[in-house]
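User: Before I run my own analysis I want an independent prediction to cross-check against. Here's the chain; please return only the C-alpha cells and, at the end, one sentence I can use as a sanity check.
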Amino acid sequence: MSQFFSIHPETPQLRLVRRSVAILRSGGVVVYPTDSCYALGCLVGDKEAMQRIRAIRGAGPTHNFTLVCRDLSEIATYARVDNPTFRLLKAHTPGPYTFILRATHEVPRRLQHPKRKTIGIRIPQHPISQAILTELREPIMSSTLMLAGEAEPLTDPSDMRARLEHRVDLVIDGGPCGFEPTTVVDLSDGASVLVRIGRGNPAPFSRVH
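Assistant: C-alpha cells:
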C-alpha cells in the first residue's frame, strides 16, 4: 500500500520532502506534481521501477521518458549543450517545456531514442518538484501520470490514491495541477523545432512543417 503525503504547494515541508526522497532512493515509484501535470517518477538507473511505470502507463519499450532536472548545470551532465542552446534553455527554464537534446554517455541507452540518441529533459518550476530535486541531487526519470487506455492525465490526488495505492510507493498531494502537458521543443539538430504545443508559450520556437 502506498504512502500519501500532503505537501504544501508553495512552502514544501522539508520533513516530507526528505521522506519522499528516501522513498525514491529505496527504489520507489512516486506520484508528484509539476508545473504542467502530475507525473510518475523514479531514479534514473532503476530498471525495475521504470518497468513499473511502463506497466501503469500501458507503455511499450519505445515509450519516451523525460529526465526532470533541478537546474541547467545538471542538464549539462546528461545532454550536449552548445552556447546558443544554453542561452535558449536559460531563457525558458524553469518552466513547462520539455527539450529534446543529444544525450551524453551518462544517459542509459534504454532512455535514449534508439536511432537519434536523444533524450527529453525539463526543469519544472513547481516548488515541490524543485524541493525534491534539490534534496535528491540527481534527476528524476519521469512520465506524465496517464493510465493505460485513458485520454487525459489524472489530476485529483484522492483519485490517484484510490486507483494506484497498490502500484506506486508514494502519492504526493500538492494541490491541483492541470491537464495540459509540456510544450516540446527539439533542439537536437541545432535549430529549435516545435514538436508539441502544450502549457509553455510556443511563440519563440519554429513550428514543424
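Sanity check: The CA atoms of residues 64 and 111 lie 7 Å apart.
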